[in-house]
Amino acid sequence: MSTHYFIGIRIPQQIAQQLGQARDSWELSTHKRLTPPADMHITLVFIGEDRFGELHEIAERLGKIDQASFRLQIAGVKTFGNPETPRIVYAALADNTKLMNLQQAVVQQLETLELSTDPKPFVPHITLASRWKGGSLPASWSLEEMAFWVDSFSLFEIHPQETPRYREIQTYSLKGDA
């Protein structure tokens, strides 16, 4: 099995711990995988495998992104898939122009490469649980208000059989406060 990659934002450990504790308080037994706090992130672009040997070029191009750091606000819990049997339960993020600009800057840097990036529209989120296995969803779930600064993003390598699964292979700093 070949190694897969993605570009994303690591969630600060304190926020990830709070998200994990909130999710655990829901006693969510409906999903096979509960994301460990150490693996919580926001995917900007999923790359998949490096079939064309472009990883070095990707790493170099990402270093050209020049954007200021920004603050993100968590805006509740949402799901992907059928609301009765959702594939994914996630922490949603409040609309944020700077996050969207960062994601677009990443996409633009990768445009001329031969990658097969995910064609679905970008929906910023932090996966809390995935892989529906059955049962009853909690009657309600909520998250306290949380916000955090994003001052970097990373190129990650995926190691499905390890914990944590996602290993940063290169991190890129954003410039100061804005």
From TrEMBL:
Residues annotated as domain Phosphoesterase HXTX: 9-90
Coiled coil: none
Reactions that this protein is recorded to catalyse: a 3'-end 2',3'-cyclophospho-ribonucleotide-RNA + H2O = a 3'-end 2'-phospho-ribonucleotide-RNA + H(+)
Cited Pfam families: LigT_PEase (PF02834)
Segments carrying motif HXTX 2: 125-128
A single MF term (Gene Ontology): 2',3'-cyclic-nucleotide 3'-phosphodiesterase activity
Active site location: 41 (proton donor), 125 (proton acceptor)
Keywords from the UniProt entry: Hydrolase
Entry keyword Membrane: no
Enzyme Commission code(s) on record: 3.1.4.58
Motif (HXTX 1): 41-44
Taxonomy, superkingdom: Bacteria
Keyword presence, Hydrolase: yes
Assigned protein family: Belongs to the 2H phosphoesterase superfamily. ThpR family.
Record function comment: Hydrolyzes RNA 2',3'-cyclic phosphodiester to an RNA 2'-phosphomonoester.
Annotated protein name in UniProt: RNA 2',3'-cyclic phosphodiesterase
Organism, scientific name: Planococcus maritimus
Lineage per the UniProt record: Bacteria, Bacillati, Bacillota, Bacilli, Bacillales
Gene: thpR
